[in-house]
Amino acid sequence: KTSTGGLGNTHSSRSGFYELNMIKAMARSHLPNNEWLKQTLVANMNLHSSCNAFWDGESVNFYRGSAQCRNTGEISAVFDHEWGHGLDDNDVTPGISEPSGEGIADIYAAIRLNDSCVGRGFWKGRKCDAAGDACLECTGVRDIDYRKMQSKSPHTLS
Questions:
Q1: What are residue 1's DSSP bridge partners?
Q2: 79: closest CA among 43, 25, 124, 114?
Q3: What's phi and psi for 105, nearest 5 deg?
């Protein structure tokens, strides 16, 4: 069924338009000379898989929901996180958070939303888990505040 307004007018496409433009505006206020922030960003929604999203070097991409997780194209912090990979690739020090870039992408989401639970609401009916260390309240992908984990101990990258 086509939504009012035509094909592609979905909750995730409208959410993406709003959220991505919000984080781009915030970033432009701090990085006014960054050319990437002045360009159009392609965002692909409702891809045929679930429980993930990704930056492919040129666009941000979001999957449909499933029985286990919500549509990643409808979660503010997931937009911010994937966009964060793009900024990491296109700032004055590309790849600052290598090897994966996950750390800096999480920071961008946490700063804009003032929430250590990255992707709150991602999981349906459960809380996140980091290498066997259960989150105390976060229903997102992960909580970057170790004090909100069961062990209350920081983890290191390996």
A1: none
A2: 43
A3: -65, -40
Residue/partner pairs of 29-38 with CB below 8 Å, 24 or more apart: 31/91, 34/87, 34/90, 34/91, 35/90, 36/86, 36/87, 36/90, 36/91, 37/87, 37/90
Residue written as tokens 């750390």?
103
Residue with tokens 């990979």: 85
| Tens-digit pLDDT string for the chain (158 aa) | 445 767 788 999 999 999 999 999 999 999 999 999 999 999 999 999 999 999 999 999 999 999 999 999 999 999 999 999 999 999 887 777 676 778 889 999 999 999 999 999 999 999 999 878 999 999 999 999 999 999 999 877 54
Q: Which residues contact 135 (CB under 8 A, 6 or more apart)?
A: 117, 127, 128, 129, 142, 143, 148, 149, 150
Map tokens 């929430």 to a residue.
115
Collapse the DSSP code of 142 into the 3-class scheme (helix H, G, I; strand E, B; otherwise coil) and give the result: strand
Q: In sequence order, what DSSP letters do the residues of 40-58 get, joined into one string?
A: --EEEEEEEEES-EEE-SS
Q: What share of the chain is helix, strand, coil (3-state, %, to 5)?
A: 35, 20, 45
